[in-house]
Amino acid sequence: MTNSSTIDRRAALKARHRQAILDAADELIRERGNPRFSVDELAERADVSRRTVFNHFASLDDIVVTACTQLLTGTVEEFRAVTGSPLVSDGSREALLDEFAAGMSRIDLPSVISYLAGVFFDEGADSRSHSVMHDVFTRTTEQMSREVAARSVEADELEVEVLVGSLMNGVAVIARRWIELTGGTLDAQSRELWRELLDRLISTVRAGYGPPR
């Protein structure tokens, strides 16, 4: 008979194996600057069997996308650290946008996007590369929305979701533009370009698309 402690140990072991696979994928990507590795190489680095890899993930692409999503969702933790709590004081859309924009400007997104550039654009940009990277941002948007809503108790939940979704989708757009213009290179000039693109995004969202008054 299987008891609860046995089930807990099995669940913990599965979680450790899954994280070991993702950590190994991240290590290989950073070492090589791209996601070119085999399942056998990944299994050896993670100290698991090939079968265990496929027990957790459907394909190498699934592993790479999940590893990138995990990296990008790390920005949610960074966002929490730089903004503090609660996030807004009066729950207004203006205050929410101001606080979110301030937090995003203090996060080191260029480093993350440079990493993503090596993963998805190492052989040049194509529609699939853009689509997969956008999927990574979409996965992160839900987590960011929950984080902002949880710490913005005075804000309307739907407005939080719409605003965060708009901004995160915008970040995905300017990330692609930044990669096209810089090749994902990290230096003072490319970081300044990122700040300009982010400021432009925030200004666009703030102004909206209605006719000038």
Please give a quick description of this structure:
This protein has helices at 4-32, 39-46, 50-56, 60-83, 93-106, 109-120, 127-150, 157-182, 188-207. By secondary structure, it is mainly α.
**Largest sheet geometry:** none
Number of strands: 0
Globally, the shape reads globular
Tally of discrete structural domains: 2
Run of helices and strands: HHHHHHHHH
In whole angstroms, the N-to-C terminal distance is 72 Å
Q: Structural class of the helices, strands and pairings? A: mainly alpha
Question: Which spans have pLDDT < 50 for at least 5 consecutive residues?
Answer: none
Radius of gyration: 20 Å
Q: What percentage of the residues does DSSP assign to strands (E)?
A: under 5%
Helix content: over 70%
Rounded mean pLDDT score: 84
What is the helix tally?
9
Written description of the protein model:
The protein is mainly α. It folds into 2 domains: 57 residues, Orthogonal Bundle (Arc Repressor Mutant, subunit A), CATH 1.10.10; 148 residues. It contains 9 helices and no strands. α8 packs antiparallel against α9. It is globular, with a radius of gyration of 20 Å. The protein starts with a helix and ends in a 6-residue tail after the last helix. 28% of the residues are buried.
Features:
globular, 213 residues, Arc Repressor Mutant, subunit A, 77% helix
